[in-house]
Amino acid sequence: MHKELKHKGFIDPFVFKNLPMKAVVENGKITLGSMLFEFKDETYPDGTTVELNCGRYSFCCLSLKEKADHEKEQKLAREAQRAAEQVKRNQKEEANRIFNRKLNVPVRWIPVIKMNWSGLLEHSRCNGSKRNSVYHIFLLADFQNGKLVRRAESYLCSPGKESVAFYRDFTDDERI
Questions:
Q1: CA dihedral (121, 125, 128, 130) positive or negative
Q2: Does some domain include residue 59?
Q3: In whole angstroms, what is the distance from residue 139 CA to residue 145 CA?
């Protein structure tokens, strides 16, 4: 893709300051001021505009057309990757919605991890959760089912007054 260039003699330090720079191939060579760059292997046709840059061990160049084509390919690859990730994300969200409907909790709720101060130690995730943490149902409205009564902004699993600090990693509109 990139074509390596060779140069004999002193390289003007200001060339490095201005890289990458555009140049035109003339007689199979690139001339920048008093410096002459020759192609090591293949050359571009005369009149081709190239972008000159410094590689790891030598100077190299790439035609602007090849650069544009390469950037277009990279953009398409990124878009395809984003689309595939979005499909996976949508499938996971749908699976979560189906699972949440099976829980059959008739009021608005969100899954949360109860905060745990020991979850803020050096071997934790530093967000209040531990490796063996589980999600709890945090009710957003009052709930009553026979003898089971819970107030809004409390956990379904415990009736007592607890701190309501929790960790969550999703938005409210993803839940019932």
A1: negative
A2: yes
A3: 13
What does residue 21 show for φ and ψ, rounded to 5 degrees?
Answer: -135, 155
- Return the closest-CA partner of residue 23 out of 44, 42, 9: 44
Residue 34 is part of which domain span?
3-67
Only one residue has tokens 């967000």, namely 127
What's the CA gap between 99 and 135, in Å, rounded?
Answer: 13
Q: Which residues pair with 52 in a beta bridge?
A: 21, 61
Statement: residue 170 has pLDDT above 90 = no
Q: Report the range of poorest mean pLDDT among 17-26, 70-79, 119-128.
A: 119-128
- Do 115 and 55 lie in one domain? The reply is no
Answer whether 37's CB lies under 8 Å from 6's CB. Answer: yes
Mean pLDDT of the chain: 81
